[in-house]
Amino acid sequence: MFTKSLKEIHAIVNGKNDVGSFGDISVSGASIDSRKIGKGNLFVPFKGGRVDGHSFVKKALEDGAAAAFWEEDVPNPPLELPIIVVEDSLTAIQELARSYRSDLDMKVIGVTGSNGKTTTKDMTASLLGTVYKVHKTSGNYNNHLGLPLTILSMDPDTEAAVLEMGMSSRGEIQFLSEMARPDIAIITNIGESHLLDLGSREGIAEAKLEILEGLKENGTFIYFGDEPLLANRPDTGRPYKAVSFGRSESNAVFPTYMENGQTETTYKINVLPDMELTLPVLGTHNVLNSLAAIAAAMELEVPAEKIREGLKSVVITGMRMEMAEGANGETIINDAYNASPTSMKAAIELTEGIAGFVHKYLVLGDMLELGPEETDFHYKIGELINPEAISKVFTYGELAGYIAKGARQRFSEQNVRSFTDKEALITELKQTVQKGDLVLVKASRGMELEAVVQELQKS
After folding, report:
1. Cβ(276)–Cβ(305) under 8 Å?
2. Residues 103-116 pLDDT 10s
3. Total Cβ atoms within 10 A of residue 139
4. pLDDT exceeds 80 at position 459
5. How far apart are CA 194 and CA 267, in angstroms?
6. CA within 13 Å, CB half, 457
7. Sign (positive/negative) of CA torsion 263, 266, 267, 268?
8. Which tens digit of pLDDT belongs to each residue from 280-336?
9. For residue 198, what pLDDT is reported?
10. How confident is the model over 58-85, as pLDDT tens digits?
């Protein structure tokens, strides 16, 4: 993590007070949670709707923080303590992160996309970690606050950083990319998430392509080449190398063979033709995510054997095609972290294609932020489900009720069950699933369907 003196931080963030005798205090790392303060940290308070972090400044300092910010419009600053008065805590932490980023001699890989960016981040970090000292975005620290905190938590000897960049509106990816200044920029795909805010897939593509604004000159842009909205991108006016990946053989990197087992995927790719690769997660979409990671690793000269090693040992962030065992002996695919029509379709197709189970059940919840066509998106997902591959469909939520309506076009009434009561859904699932069955659980994060997985795991 970063280490600077209080007077150095004061200068970087344009502090408004005289730090006096506190100037030589050494500060290491930053925290926004007074309950998780580390010794020597900088505590960064924010004014929330219900709680003002400034009320915890003194406690944070007592618990080991070396210093703290204090916003100038908050009354009664404790000037007898090692604080830096700033105009705005968020702006100050962002400026500090920009400064520290300039201090670091490392390669940065920026990852964005509608689906799969966290998985691609995890895969890229695993591949690079076989050769380099790597730091990656933790959890969902991928926004205008999370990215600065991620940068500030890096060790000075970090050799490669894999930084996830999320967004909900225009300008956000540009802001993050210009802060991170990536050597390699990855866009995993363009889906339907954020249609409510951006209006169209074209608008989503334009917002994701903002990652090129921070890409270093002569850097590398790795993109999903099967998507015309990315292949036909606008000229930035700055030189960079473009590398496409996807299913099509017109891409620079593509799979030549794939086979899904019950817990892993084996495949080959054109750029490593003599090597069989093993991925400990399922699905064509995850193979495609790995192609982006492989392309990034090859750009940074990771040897082929190390790439294979990194793929085999990759650990994916939770609730993304995560395999679990239920109390009745059933196998559960926990993909409850997020959902869009693109990722929902991919997960359903994967479940339909896995062999060796007695029954296969889908538990599908609302897909959120899809705009005015949200009911149509849900209905079409239901229509796609194959009754010859899936025994029964369970839905949860008002919008997911339209998945049920679509599914009833091909399924009998008794094999489609729609719920708005989570407890009732769990009760019926427990009465239905048995040893040897497979259950897919998928919905947008706001539906909290991981609770269903947790209950299925209880005796």
Report:
1. no
2. 999 999 999 998 89
3. 11
4. no
5. 32
6. 12
7. positive
8. 998 899 999 999 999 999 999 999 999 999 999 998 887 778 889 999 999 999 999
9. 76
10. 999 999 999 999 999 999 999 999 999 9
* Closest to 306 (Cα-Cα) out of 443, 147, 157, 128: 128
In whole angstroms, how far apart are CA 278 and each of 264, 265, 266, 289, 295? 7, 6, 5, 13, 16
Cβ neighbours, 10 Å, residue 420: 12
State how far the Cα of 281 lies from the Cα of 121, in Å rounded to an integer: 14
- Using a CB cutoff of 8 Å and minimum separation of 24, what contacts does 374-382 make? 374/399, 375/399, 375/402, 376/402, 377/192, 377/341, 378/402, 378/403, 378/406, 379/403, 379/405, 379/406, 380/341, 380/406, 381/341, 381/344, 381/345, 381/348, 381/406, 382/406, 382/407, 382/408, 382/409
Cβ 438 vs Cβ 361: under 8 Å: yes
Q: Categorize the per-residue pLDDT at 140 as very low, low, confident or very high, splitting at 50, 70 and 90.
A: confident
* DSSP classification of residue 280: S
Between CA 100 and CA 95 the distance in angstroms is 9
In the beta sheet, which residues pair with residue 438? Answer: 331, 360
CA 394 to each of CA 63, 332, 369: distance values in angstroms, whole numbers, following the listed order:
49, 14, 21
| pLDDT 10s digits, 267-287 | 999 999 999 999 999 889 999
DSSP string of 188-216, one letter each residue: ----STTHHHH-SHHHHHHHHGGGGGTSP
Q: How far apart are CA 435 and CA 262, in angstroms?
A: 15
Return the pLDDT at 231. Answer: 85
Does an H or E element contain 102, and which?
Answer: helix 89-103
Sketch out the chain's domains with CATH numbers.
3-87 (3.40.1390.10), 104-312 (3.40.1190.10), 322-456 (3.90.190.20)
Alpha helix positions (H), 313-362: 341-353
Q: Are strands 272-279 and 265-269 parallel, antiparallel or unpaired?
A: antiparallel
Q: Encoding tokens for residue 383?
A: 């229509």
How far apart are the C-alpha atoms of 294 and 288, rounded to whole Å? Answer: 10
- Report the distance separating Cα 83 and Cα 77, nearest Å: 8
pLDDT value for 199: 77
* Residue % of the chain over a pLDDT of 90: 85
pTM of the full structure: 0.86
The label of the residue with tokens 């303590």 reads 81
Cβ atoms < 10 Å from Cβ of 454: 12
pLDDT confidence bin for 52, thresholds 50/70/90:
very high
Q: How many CB atoms lie within 10 A of CB 144?
A: 16
Whether the Cβ atoms of residue 67 and residue 38 lie closer than 8 Å to each other: no
Q: Is the pLDDT of residue 98 over 90?
A: yes
